[in-house]
Write a structure and sequence with these properties.
Elements (H helix, E strand, L loop, with lengths): L2 H19 L5 H9 L19 H15 L4 H15 L10
Helix pairs in contact: 1-2, 1-4, 2-4, 3-4
Length: about 100
């Protein structure tokens, strides 16, 4: 999926999570979170859809973020996870647990 699709899905899912939890979002940060797993394209030595497309890795990364920011972190977590689960998996990619 192209970045525009990840932006759109990240916005929709993050905004829905924010509205259901009644929290405000930082829109640029939400957009960044929605395409963050694709930063592996810019890092030499990492394959695309490699470790940065891992559901478990992002769950571990977000544990301290949830501890600090509580429910305010949920829209950004949803935006990152949608990239892996909805954006990549549904277009024919593999779901990376690790």
């Amino acid at each position: 999926m192209y970045a525009v699709g990840h932006f759109a899905l990240g916005y929709l899912t993050g905004k829905l999570a924010a509205k259901s939890l009644d929290v405000n979002i930082n829109l640029p940060l939400l957009f960044l979170a929605s395409v963050f797993p694709d930063i592996d394209i810019l890092i030499p030595g990492l394959e695309h859809r490699g470790p940065l497309h891992s559901v478990i890795l992002f769950c571990l990364i977000f544990l301290p973020i949830f501890a600090i920011y509580k429910k305010r972190a949920a829209p950004y977590f949803v935006a990152v996870i949608q990239h892996i689960i909805i954006g990549d998996y549904l277009i024919g990619g593999d779901l990376q647990l690790l």
